[in-house]
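May I ask for whichever protein you like with its backbone structure tokens?
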Amino acid sequence: MKTSVLINNYNYAPYVAEAIQSVVNQTNVPDELIIVDDGSSDGSVEVIRKHIADIPYAKLIVTKNKGQLSAVNEGIMASTGDLLFFLDSDDCYNPEHIDNCLNVFNDKPHIGFIYTSHERIGKDQSVHHTFSQSRQLGVCVLTTRFHHAYLGSITSTMAIKRKYLTPLFPINETFYTTWKTRADSVLTWGAGLTGACKYFLKEPSVLYRIHKTNHFTGTFKNTLYDQISYNLASEQIINHMWQKLNYSNLLAYSSLLEFSSIERPTAGELRGYIKLFEMAGLPLRKRTSLAFRLYKKYRKNRRGLKN
């Protein structure tokens, strides 16, 4: 499979060369490196041009400033890889990052989306794990639509098969402003809605930089009103993508298949699927029947873990 790394940059001149070098230092170098500069005014473009001058597989695209989602959009459309790796220009890969992800994609060909643990550097130094061990999280079309399930992480930890983004990208420009600093949400939900089977890789192979000029952590305050605005914007873009894919709530009838794709499903995940039957407007008798079948599947899985 051909691999592409997509770096998005905006006014990160002090960090972007280190991000690029972390791609060059991979034990499995990508076939293609595309850097999209989103109209920087701090000399980033000169730094990038100088650093990629001797990298034959690197390409720089300079655009007007429209935000991170716009830059990610440009990178996806310009890339040619079957596997797309994403990297914010203030973050870095550990040398084995691409190799680690490729091992999963090769061992589990049905996987379409991987995200890894990451190590925070800078003001906050810690390792962030979503789960205690690597795990197949399954297909999440329904939980993405009805629960806005976020089975992903920061942009730099993500590797996605192109075929799960093609149905939705390019994203409509009307969403650029709202998601100016949160392209990771759009990528995560988009791949979820197109049916990518997701996998969490516990090995931390990404360095996530926390600093005062970080475009997200440095500006997002997470107040009550921020959360309300985020929830409204989430519903708008998820509903937009749902309609673009020409889906209907009748997909809820396939919930047993989707639930079966989850490795070691939890009681919380079981409750989430049962709850979405009502949200999808299924008749009571059908909701009851599906809930019973899901519970049987869950119990069988739990018994298998104990044996």
Strands lie at 3-9, 32-37, 58-62, 83-88, 92-93, 111-122, 126-128, 135-138, 158-161, 197-210. The chain has a mean pLDDT of 93. The radius of gyration is 20 Å. The chain has two domains: 3-218, 249-306.
